[in-house]
Structure formats: structure tokens, C-alpha cells
Amino acid sequence: MSAQPGTVPGLRQVCAGLSTGCGPALPLASRVVLELFQITGSASFAVRAALEEAGAEYVTVDIHPQRRDEIPDFALVNPLKRVPALREGDVVVYETGAALQWVAERFPEARLAPPPGDPLRGHYLRWMAWLGNTLHRAWQPVDSPRSITDDPAAHESIRRHGYEQLERIGRYLEGELTRSQWCLGDAYSVADIYLYMLVGWQSFVEGGYVLGAAAVAAHSARVGARPAIKRARELDDLDERFQRHHPELRAGRPI
Ligand SMILES: N[C@@H](CCC(=O)N[C@@H](CS)C(=O)NCC(=O)O)C(=O)O
Prior knowledge:
Layout: E1 34-38, H1 44-54, E2 59-62, H2 73-77, E3 85-88, E4 91-94, H3 96-106, H4 121-138, H5 140-143, H6 152-177, H7 190-200, H8 214-224, H9 227-235, E5 249-250, E6 253-254
Parallel strand pairs: 1-2
Antiparallel strand pairs: 1-3, 3-4, 5-6
Helix pairs in contact: 1-3, 1-7, 1-9, 4-7, 6-8, 7-8
């Protein structure tokens, strides 16, 4: 969408249809801008997709993977210098799961999470915790055993254990998603976005890998067909399999 009067060039003004947050345009100096620190095609995709789902107005701050100090504010926003990270005025949030939950709460009209007190809240919290502490980390042993040990003799066994864990995770997800449209049954949430991205990372596995079976694939297809998700993929230069159209570029810049 095109920038509106009074906004930063490139700022995404996508508030149409929301009941709040779209008042008369204020002079730029008096506006607090929501910033997404990102590397296109990385874990920041999920947060961008949630912002797109929410119809949020935000700007992106592109972090160069090899030059993380180029943007001095990045270390202030996330001392770990990892993406995604969000800043809005004095508020900063990093860690994918936390940032997704924050987006859902910041834009409640978008109904991207069950609110406190909702009977689905416990399931939602459980999904978000599990995605962050289990599935997000599960690809590393198969994709990059050398990030776990530099002893090449151990890599095969690390990979084998990694695949065994992925098989267990795949069976678990099949059980959870069979007969269920979304992670929370009929209620779409940021958990679906997070799961969609993490399942999409299967295409990075050398030689190919399919996590789970028909129910996981159907869930990914449902999420991936949503207009906001398609838009986020285009913005992040990703195809339907989560492969970068231009692997040599991040936000249009060479890596
Ligand atoms: N636990 C973090 C992990 C974030 C993360 O690893 N981000 C990657 C991009 S996919 C990154 O910034 N990697 C840079 C690095 O490891 O130096 C989260 O959930 O946000």
C-alpha cells in the first residue's frame, strides 16, 4: 500500500477497516512510530505477518546479517542483536513469541489471540510457549550440527537425534491439527502464524523434509493462503515454500 500524507516514505499505512488507531493524520514529529527490526526471510517474518494481519501501521528497520552494528539503536532494542525486535516509543519487545503476543495485545481489534479470561487462553499460552521452546529450536540439529559442536565426528549422531525429535514433533502436530482448522480450533491466532513459519523452515533441510503429514500440510496451506500472509511473504521476498526469491539479498541489499 502507498504511504499516506504525513507518514515516513515506505511507512505502511494499512489501517483501513479498523475501528481505532486511524485518527486524523498527525504531524510526523508528534507520532510514535512502531518499528520492526528485521532481516527479510528470517524469524522476523512471523512478526511482520502478524502486523500485516492486524492492519498495523509500522516501519521496518533492516538489519544487515553481517553488520549488526550498522544501526546503533539495534543493540539498545535487543542486546542479543537478534531479530525480530519491536520498538514503539519507550516500549521494546524481542523474542519471536513475545513480539507476536505483544502485537496481538496491541491490536486487539484484529482478534489474533484470546484475551485473558477466555477459555482458550490456556491453550493459546501453551502453543506459544511450545512453539518458542521446542519447534523453533528443533531445526538446528539437522540444519546446523556444527553450531552445536565443532567435532565433525558427532555431527551424524546429532542429526539423527534431530530427525528423531522432528518425527515426534510431526506426530504430535498431526494429532493436534487433525479435525482442527487452526491451533485453537475455530479461532485463528498468532500461534498459527508462528507455526506456519516454523513448518515452512522444513524447506531449508538439505535433501528435503516434511514435518508431520496431511493435517500439518493443510494447516500451512490455510495460513499461507490468507491475504496478509501472502503480502508478508512478498514483502520478505519469500516464495510459497519459504525459499527466498533472491537468496543473495536482504531487503534488496547484498549480503
Ligand atoms: N530466540 C530468538 C531467536 C531469534 C533468532 O535466532 N533470530 C535469527 C534470525 S532467524 C537471528 O537474528 N540470528 C542472528 C544471529 O544468530 O546472530 C527468537 O525467538 O526471536
